[in-house]
Amino acid sequence: MTPLATLTPTSQPRVGPGFRLQWEAAQDCHVLLYPEGMVKLNGSAGQIMQRCDGQRSVAAIVAELEAAFSAQGLEADVLAFVQMAADKRWLVWA
Amino acid sequence: MNKPAIGPPLWLLAELTYRCPLHCVFCYNPVDFAQTERELDTEGWLRVLREGRELGAVQCGLSGGEPLLRDDLEIIVAEARRLGYYTNLLTSGVGLTEERAEALKAAGLDHVQLSFQDSTREMNDFLSHTKTFTLKNRVAATIKAQGWPMVMNVVIHRMNIDHVDRIIEMAVEMGAEYLELANTQYYSWALVNRDQLLPTREQLRRAEASTAKWREKLGEKMRIFFVAPDYHDGRPKKCVNGWGSMFLNVTPDGTALPCHTAKMLPGLAFPNVREHSLREIWFDSEGFNRYRGTGWMKEPCSSCEHREEDLGGCRCQAYMLAHDPAAADPVCSKSPQHHLVTEAVARADAGGPLRSEHPLVFRDPVNSRRLAPG
After folding, report:
1. How far apart are CA B251 and CA B240, in angstroms?
2. Strand partners, A92
3. What does the DSSP 8-state code read for residue B320?
4. Which of A90, B120, B152, B293 is the most exposed place for a label (fewest CB within 10 A)?
5. CB B342: neighbour CB atoms within 10 A?
6. What residues of chain B lie within 8 A of the CB of A38, using their CB?
7. Is there a contact between A87 and B220 if contact means CB atoms under 8 Å apart?
8. pLDDT at B154
9. Chain B: nearest CA to A78, how far in angstroms?
């Protein structure tokens, strides 16, 4: 496993290999699936993860979330979540 | 009475067949597996998958026996994936040719769990009564080539526990993302062979120390799960995370079970998917409701401070050792039958290696018919 480049607002995160993100109506939340396991994501984690498609940059994700929720100053929270998710291999970027 | 809310069966395990090219001495398939006559057909399995998904099942295990012996496996995988399951193939690797791997990848298979019996050719081949070690090595490369995450699973016992160091090293070399070192659970064939398989406390201590050392060295590169044996630590396990709480097992003939081995329990009929919908089975059947929650408990469980944590342990182990499926699991130090467990461990601690007067019983149809004449 090669270490990821340092996370910056221009990084374009996507769901890591072996993981799958999907909406589960039965559980009313996004879940992250991996071999024989599952993580239930809370609302904000789901909102961030579903935008991590390898196309959008962190900055673009932040802008979308700030617009969608009429909020400001989300960048630090989003960066912290993306880094935590990368440490768990949920997210990767080039 | 304590009636818990019933959540969805998140984990659906489809045991597609009991047929298997291996004859492992610790197999958890029932000792009487040879009596199984009619496997569910393709359409039967597809219906199980659809009904499970409607109930909220999200992980689908395809197991056996050896699931690759079903020539409709690709059809089953494709439907499971289409429905939105995360699909896990649990295999010995026998039959996973490159062609088949490609077809399964195209069908959408998410992950392969490959079982090994040991890190050495001799012990792997001896324990499974086959010549498969070289083949498994090749299959591991095939799995990696398809880009699947690989879980390597090794059932641990007295005869291979001293190889844990080498087993971990082998898993790293093969590029496994996860390694399960699963200490033998003493049911079915493993119970028949218990005296030969139970490790000593000292062996266990060394294996745990090795595992801890490797975990530190590997970090996130490979995750190692060490499933401790319940015989040695005096604390029962919350079996399948609680009876009827998230796990639903369908056996090759369509019998629905709350755990792999529950069919052995007396006085309890388990429904068949040929006759009932999974919804009726999960919510309404006596088989799935009998040991849900804590309402069925008797002493020492019913007043125990740990009753919600361990739910009294395993019903099958209670039946096998205490002859009462509603008793406390005898691995618990509070069980009146706990001495049966400590005596077995003491015999392991005192005994030498293999005793020739009790030869290992390999899992095969001939031994199955001998042990369970039907």
Report:
1. 16
2. A14
3. H
4. B120
5. 15
6. 10, 58-59, 86
7. yes
8. 93
9. 22
pTM assigned to the model: 0.91
Which of helix, strand or coil describes residue B183? Answer: strand
Residue B303 DSSP label: T
Which H or E run includes B346?
A: helix B338-350
Contact A34 B149 (CB under 8 A): yes
Q: Using one digit for the tens of pLDDT, what is the confidence trace for B326-354?
A: 999 999 999 999 999 999 999 888 875 55
Closest residue by Cα to residue A90 from A28, A41, A26: A41
Taken in order B355, B358, B344, B362, the sign of the CA dihedral is: positive
Q: Which residues of A touch B148 (CB under 8 A)?
A: 18
- Name the nearest CA neighbour of B262 among B299, B311, B317: B317
Cα separation, B370 vs B355, whole angstroms: 21
Give CA separation, B204 vs B196, B214, B238, B252, B277, in Å. Answer: 15, 15, 21, 34, 44
Q: Do A37 and B59 touch (CB under 8 A)?
A: yes
Q: Residues A18-74: pLDDT tens digits?
A: 999 999 998 999 999 999 899 999 999 999 999 999 999 999 999 999 999 999 999
So what's the pLDDT on residue B3?
54
Low-confidence ranges of chain B (pLDDT < 70): 1-4, 352-358, 374
Q: How far apart are CA B200 and CA B197, in angstroms?
A: 10
The B178-183 sheet, strands edge to edge? B223-227, B178-183, B150-156, B111-116, B86-91, B59-63, B11-15, B247-250, B256-257
By Cβ distance, the residue of A33, A35, A38 closest to B151 is A35
Give me the residue from A24, A35, A87 closest to B149, CB to CB: A35
CB-CB contact of B314 with B329 (8 Å): yes
- Cα dihedral value A41, B56, A36, B274, nearest 10: 180
pLDDT at residue B1, rounded to an integer? 44
